[in-house]
Amino acid sequence: MLPALVALLPAELPKLERSGLHGYINATAEETPDGYGFGVSLYSAAWPLTEKPVSGFQIGLASTWILPDNRNFKEPLVPKGTVARDSMPERGPSFWTVFQTIEGGLGFWGSNRYLAPTAKFRINGTVDGYNHELSTPGWDFYGRALPAEWMGIVQLSPHMLIPPDGVTLSQRTKGELLGYAWMALPLVVPREVPVKTGNQCWTLFFNTSNFRGPVAFYLPTAWSKMSAGYAPAVGRGLDALPGFAGSGAIEINTVPKFVADSVAGDRYAKIPQLQFPADKDGKTVLIHNLTAYSKSALWNQVEGWMAGGPIPSGAFDGKGARIQKLRANPIRLDMGPQQPVSRVESWVESASLDPYTFGLQWKPGTFSPWGKGLYRAGFPAFFRRTGNGFEAVKQEAVPENTGLGAVIFSSPDLTRSYLPSDGGQGVWATPGPASPPMRATLSDGSVVTYSWYRFVDQPAMQNSGLSVTEKADLQRLVEQIHRHWTPEKNYMAPPSAGKIASLDPALLVKPPKGLEVGYVPVAIRQDPSK
Questions:
Q1: What's the rounded Cα separation, in Å, for the pair 282 and 14?
Q2: In angstroms, rounded to a whole number, what is the distance separating the alpha carbons of residues 147 and 511?
């Protein structure tokens, strides 16, 4: 064989490894004064991170973590037998950062069963040291049907569906900002049995171009459930304590890589090409206006309403809002334990674009036009082994004889369905829906089947711990919310700059005649397109 041809042939075929790129692109938020632990909001950019879906891939776009403020607590908040206590010893002694969280947000999640053109928004709350992660009224973050006793998210909006696989956006989304907030609201009363439980109902609000307002909330009993058998956690959960959000980040969790050795013996790696929206100056907005709220933003108005006062507008009072300054931290990446990644800064660096906007600054030559005044920046996709880590390199620096230039990452399996617990019986059927099943085809091609339930009859409410009287009071309150907190009104303050994203229009549903107030659409299954 000719020597020149031999030099082009790989020594052995590239090998696919799941332990590809990991790390964080993050910013630290300034400390807020005491009293600002009753809500968190932000604007986060959404876009198609890869040109095609990739199997075994998970990157959460810029979001935050809300934690019950146990920073000064010293005892273990999670018992032995929890994921956090048994596998995260570095988070001890209190484990407060992995005890309970509201996280999720926009992203491309390894547990997604259908892949949309752009990022999906997913709710996620870990209620007991990562043993259970509640993502929708009927399913957990990994797509497993929740048994009735672990349902903890209740559908509040009569205008918008929450699909098991996540909230889809407009197919045209390419860098627009999704506004969302988690506000603690006193929608129920505190209780002492079977375990002490606070009255904080963390409620999700959206601010988009085609929908605004409350979507769903966590029942306080979802947070207090674990403490029924573990005394150190009593009164320490998100049902009772202020919520703390000290940072915002892109979390690069699972990005597969191909590795191969050149004929010369050097090791190289390739990851899927990641793309980011940028402006003409190479700036990418990731998080804008991360805001913390005191009780005066909305809690006090709702509390007064429940005591017989006037119905509030639902808008967040700016006097109770504090926009947090964001300090960009250096990008931290690795390709496995003790394998840091270097030279990424030759392409891009994290940046505080203004005091309240965190993003990226791309180097000249790394971005090009992407249509309609937008630019597309390309993250490095090739790396060379050096010492105990990897360094980013341009594709032309990778020898052809590695074979990496030609490898293609496989697409995920998109054929699985989401089915309800108990075969759709149990709490799904008793008290049962008020309408026959209906269907919506989403921008990811999947089909959501849903039914309308009276608010207190929905499956997740059946283990709420509320008495008949308390349920009746909550039903009346929700009916007033449906009448007065409508989706054309404003709740969050608008962003200072940038365009607001749109939800997938298929998620925006119209109540059947006679069910306009006091009834909500609940997803009962989701299937791939036929």
A1: 33
A2: 27
Contact, 392 vs 341, CB < 8 A?
yes
Could you tell me the CA-to-CA distances from 144 to 134, 136, 419, 522 in Å, in that order? 10, 11, 8, 16
Percent of the chain with pLDDT over 90: 92
Answer yes or no: is pLDDT of 10 > 60. no
Reported as a single tens digit per residue, the pLDDT across 55-74 is: 999 999 999 999 999 999 99
For the chain, what is the radius of gyration of the CA atoms? 24
Q: What is the DSSP letter of 123?
A: E
pTM of the model: 0.95
CA 155, 156, 159, 165 torsion-angle sign: negative
- Our CA dihedral for 69, 75, 80, 84, rounded to 10 degrees, sits at 30
Locate all alpha helices (DSSP H) within 154-298, ordered by sequence: 220-224
Q: Look up tokens 């349920």; give the residue.
A: 471
Please give the Cα distance from 385 to 507 (Å, whole number).
Answer: 46
Q: Is 34 helix (H, G, I), strand (E, B) or coil?
A: coil
| Partners of 218 in beta bridges | 153
CA distance 249 to 192: 37
| CA distances, 27 to each of 66, 281, 293 (Å) | 15, 21, 19
Give 480's contacts (C-beta < 8 A, 6+ positions apart).
311
Give residue-wise pLDDT tens across range 158-209.
999 999 999 999 999 999 999 999 999 999 999 999 999 999 999 999 999 9
Amino acid at 235: G
Structural tokens at position 127: 């209620």
C-alpha dihedral (429, 431, 436, 437), degrees to nearest 10: -50
Q: What is the pLDDT of residue 5?
A: 43
Owner of token pair 């990991």 = 22
Contact assessment for residue 129 and residue 98, using Cβ atoms and an 8 Å cutoff: yes
Strands 67-68 and 39-45: unpaired
* Total residue count of the chain as it appears in this document: 530
Amino acid at 489: K
Q: What are phi and psi of 232, to 5 degrees?
A: -60, -20
- Give the other-Cβ count within 10 Å of 172's Cβ: 11
State the maximum Cα–Cα separation within the chain, in Å, rounded to a whole number: 90
Q: What is the dihedral of CA 224, 228, 234, 240, to 10 degrees?
A: 20
Instruction: Give the C-alpha separation, 60 to 24, whole Å.
Output: 10
Give the pair of three-digit tokens for residue 457: 């009859």
Are 10 and 401 contacting, i.e. CB atoms less than 8 angstroms apart? yes
> How far is it, in rounded angstroms, from Cα 449 to Cα 527?
8
The DSSP element (H or E) to which 405 belongs, if any, is none
User: Is the Cβ–Cβ distance between 530 and 524 less than 8 Å?
Assistant: no
Structure tokens at 442: 């989403």
List all residues 6 or more positions away from 468 whose beta carbon is below 8 Å from its beta carbon.
Answer: none
Q: Which two tokens stand for residue 366?
A: 């790394």
DSSP strand E in 159-272: where?
177-185, 201-207, 212-218, 243-244, 247-261, 267-270
